[in-house]
Amino acid sequence: MIKVLMHGCNGKVGQTISRIISQHEGIQLVAGVDPYLGIPNPFPVFSHINECNIAVDVIIDFSTAPAVIPMIQYAVSKKIPTVVCTTGLSAEDIAYVQDASTTIPVFFSANMSLGVNLIIALAKRAAEVLSDSSFDIEIIEKHHNQKIDAPSGTALAIAEAINETLDNTYNFRYDRSTVREKRPKKEIGIHAVRGGTIVGEHEILFAGNDEFISLTHQATSKEVFAVGAIKAAKFLASKTPGLYNMEHLLDA
């Protein structure tokens, strides 16, 4: 039985994981960490990661950016494999997470949805096929009005994957209001929409002459992220130190 510590257990995704993890064989949620203790849980919850004294096999992190580094430090000190799902990390935070993977197994992905990671693969293939044509590339992401970071980590991951396919020759444009000029060809526009209770939608638009191609993924509940995180935890628990992502999970 794989014993899991849920870091950010009282957040929306944390609560979703708590609810559905029992549907998966061979894995059990035995402890949680969250600064907000106002929600009852069927396992002990600690307000800070360093207070946790329960032995676990893997950590699933769906918290906030400031909480990630202390969590990683704890995981390294205890040699616990860790699934990092929190978005909005700085470049320094990401470098720290990557460095930790030399000591412990770390699963790090901008989006835990299997469907999103499939659409990233499709976008890379589209960029490869259309690279010699006059297609402009735009990414539009939509999320609920409580999301703090913009653009989303997933939108950036899509843009970076496409740009890597195009030999990193494209620039990212986040706002066209400050520059009055025609759209440069080697540019990827990234746009954020915030409103209502939108769980998450990402569209990659390849706009050419007299035709366009649109790849879209819509998440209608947070369960898609929870299921992906649980699968990642089961995948990671037996791994050796290293940095893992959704490509490794999809290929497993």
Given the C-alpha coordinates, what overall shape results?
elongated
CATH topology of the largest domain: Rossmann fold
CATH architect. name of the largest domain: 3-Layer(aba) Sandwich
Biggest beta sheet attributes: 7 strands, parallel
Overall pLDDT level: 93
User: What is the count of helical runs?
Assistant: 7
Oligomeric state? single chain
The count of domains is 2
Quick one: CATH class of the largest domain?
Answer: Alpha Beta
What characteristics describe this protein?
252 residues; alpha/beta; Rossmann fold; 2 domains; 12 strands; 33% helix
Task: Please explain how this structure is put together.
This protein has 252 residues and is α/β, with parallel strands linked by helices. The protein folds into two domains: 2-112 and 222-251, 3-Layer(aba) Sandwich (Rossmann fold), CATH 3.40.50; 114-219, Dihydrodipicolinate Reductase, domain 2 (2-Layer Sandwich). The protein is built from seven helices and twelve strands. The chain has helices at 12-20, 65-78, 91-100, 114-130, 153-165, 223-236, 246-251, and strands at residues 2-7, 27-33, 45-46, 58-61, 82-84, 105-108, 136-143, 171-173, 187-194, 200-207, 212-219, 242-244. The chain has a seven-stranded parallel sheet, sandwiched between helices. A five-stranded mixed sheet has the order 8-9-7-10-11, covered by helices on one side. Helix 3 links the parallel strand 5 and strand 6 (105-108). Helix 1 (12-20) packs across helix 6 (223-236) and helix 4 packs parallel to helix 5. The radius of gyration is 19 Å and the shape is elongated. The mean pLDDT is 93.
